[in-house]
Amino acid sequence: MINPLQLVAHRGLQSDYPENTLIAITKAIEAGARFIEIDLQYSKDRLPVISHDDNLNRVGENANFHFHNRNRKEIINQPAHEPERFEDKFIEEKIPKLEDILPLLNNNPEVTFFLELKQETLHQKDFQDSLNTLSKILKNVIENVVVISFDLELIHFISRDYNFRAGFVLTHFSDLDHDRIELIKPEFVFLDFNLIPSNFILSKHPIANTTKFVCYEVNNCELATNLLNRGVNMIETFNFKKLRGS
What we know:
Elements: E1 7-10, H1 22-30, E2 35-42, E3 48-50, H2 72-75, H3 83-86, H4 102-107, E4 112-117, H5 127-138, E5 145-149, H6 152-161, E6 165-169, H7 179-184, E7 188-192, E8 212-216, H8 221-229, E9 234-237, H9 240-244
Parallel strand pairs: 1-2, 1-9, 2-4, 4-5, 5-6, 6-7, 7-8, 8-9
Antiparallel strand pairs: 2-3
């Protein structure tokens, strides 16, 4: 059993509900999650929606529906029920807009959301406009969200010009030694546990004094415990209930 304060529910309660949907996010909170990671894509009209993919090939049934050429009002009317996993059980679940989680944040101030900005629909030429929109939406709950991305330049931009709490997602373990990491001092660093060199103790890394390490995708308690013993601070998982022991 892992302490729920050391667990991040990946895309909500993904094991039991379609990922990144309101029901998955709500059920994660009900199951005791205090940290939840969700993904943000942008529509053609530059508004954020909650989705890992920039299309409906996997979570919906419309293979020709791509977010970059659709306005948000079209996207949020699309089912996001993951038919390959759940058939039509959750057919009423739609792609949420970011604003849909505001009541959950307001009603559950103990919960922190990690918002991963996906790179498929967010480009350097519109960083500022996209982040201004994000800032306006989240202005009253900004302490309860952490913006994360694989894009180090984006995280640098956020840390310099915005009040967001920020985190970086590693592509390579050597990225930990990038000069800009030391400059930014991200509050969180996310990394695939497979990137960590054998027997490396993360708590001994120079940035460990200012940064919390979050490992994904970990789905069993033995591995989670081993990683926590090696200096990982938090475990991101699709199996929140299993690792929590509920």
